Automatic annotation (TrEMBL):
This is 4-hydroxy-tetrahydrodipicolinate reductase. Pfam families: DapB_C, DapB_N. The active site is at 158 (proton donor/acceptor), 162 (proton donor). (S)-2,3,4,5-tetrahydrodipicolinate binds at residues 159, 168-169. The gene is dapB. NAD(+) binds at residues 11-16, 37, 101-103, 125-128. PANTHER family: 4-HYDROXY-TETRAHYDRODIPICOLINATE REDUCTASE 1, CHLOROPLASTIC-RELATED, DIHYDRODIPICOLINATE REDUCTASE.
Length: 272
């Protein structure tokens, strides 16, 4: 028997799923106890290690989430919004910490996750890297220091397989900028410019999404005024930064009371 919490990875064959499995397997602070894929996925029923191109392992990929969650202390979940909402209910039943990295949630889906957090410890963040979470705090501070002579634009770039836009990170940065300015993002966001748009409205926060090749994830927050520009930038060059953050969150969540937390809580970056 070891004290290392048992972790189940959902979306095991995905870009993040495989990175998470490698990160957990390399750690002596957690043990991989399960791997989930969708029912129609060719990995279901197969040995996880072999599917990842290595030696056989103790883990067989399954589509039975509840059975797998029952053996775990934490679920690390980078899948799709619909899947993560379902896993939130099952993780709450199994009393597991649920780390959600999935992005692209609709408002009603976020409400369902929020409801699950009444009974479960959920840590959700659109970006699990230390660097981006620091950038969130910097963005809030810079936005609070400047008035709306400074136009704020959030520009993000990702690989050509990404299905949601703006990225979860871009929305976190936009929220931070809006909070710094004391406004509601919903009221000032401009998420699509095309055609004769008219002049930029003062106080807007604009979003731009670049998609191409194998870009891991890049985010700029631009503050542009007459005669000067400030650019706050984060570049992720390796998905391992997200996986390390997610593992840290799963460990941090052990023994924590039910509620919805984020990476600022995990990293101790919350402030007044
Ligand atoms: N918060 C963060 O730090 C990060 C978040 N992400 C987000 O994580 C999510 C996944 O990203 P990728 O790994 O690049 O995508 P991906 O498409 O490579 O992987 C998603 C995996 O989830 C699986 N899946 C979908 N529905 C499922 C279900 N019902 N049951 C079990 N498995 C299911 C798919 O089969 C696939 O293997 C995206 O929303 C992305 O934006 C990605 C990187 C970092
Ligand atoms: O889909 C991705 O790849 C990423 N998604 C997250 C997001 O939507 O911000 C985090 C990271 O940028 C990679």
């Amino acid at each position: 028997m070891t004290d290392a919490p048992g972790i189940v990875v959902t979306g095991a064959s995905g870009r993040m799923g495989q990175m998470l499995i490698e990160t957990i397997n390399a750690s002596d602070r957690a043990t991989l106890v399960g791997a989930i894929e969708r029912s129609d996925h060719p990995w279901v029923g197969k040995d996880l290690g072999e599917m990842m191109g290595g030696a056989s392992s103790d883990v067989v990929v399954t589509d039975d989430a509840l059975e797998a969650f029952a053996k775990a202390q934490a679920i690390v979940d980078f899948t799709s919004p619909a899947a993560s909402v379902e896993f939130a209910g099952l993780a709450a039943q199994a009393r597991c910490v649920h780390v959600i990295g999935t992005t692209g949630f609709a408002e009603d889906e976020l409400q369902k996750i929020n409801a699950a957090a009444r009974h479960a410890t959920i840590i959700r963040a659109g970006n699990m890297s230390l660097g981006v979470n620091l950038l969130v705090q910097l963005t809030k501070k810079v936005a609070a220091a400047l008035d709306d002579d400074y136009d704020i634009e959030v520009i993000e770039a990702h690989h050509n397989q990404k299905v949601d836009a703006p990225s979860g990170t871009a929305l976190m940065l936009g929220e931070a900028a809006a909070e710094g300015r004391g406004v509601s993002l919903g009221e000032v966001a401009d998420r699509a410019r095309d055609g004769i748009t008219g002049e930029r409205k003062r106080g807007q926060i604009g979003f731009h999404a670049i998609r191409g090749g194998d870009i891991v994830g890049e985010h700029d927050v631009l503050f542009a005024a007459l005669g000067e520009r400030i650019v706050l930038r984060h570049v992720a060059s390796d998905r391992a930064v997200f996986a390390r953050g997610a593992l840290k969150a799963a460990l941090w969540g052990q023994g924590r009371k039910p509620g919805e937390y984020d990476m600022l809580d995990v990293l101790g970056l919350t402030e007044n």
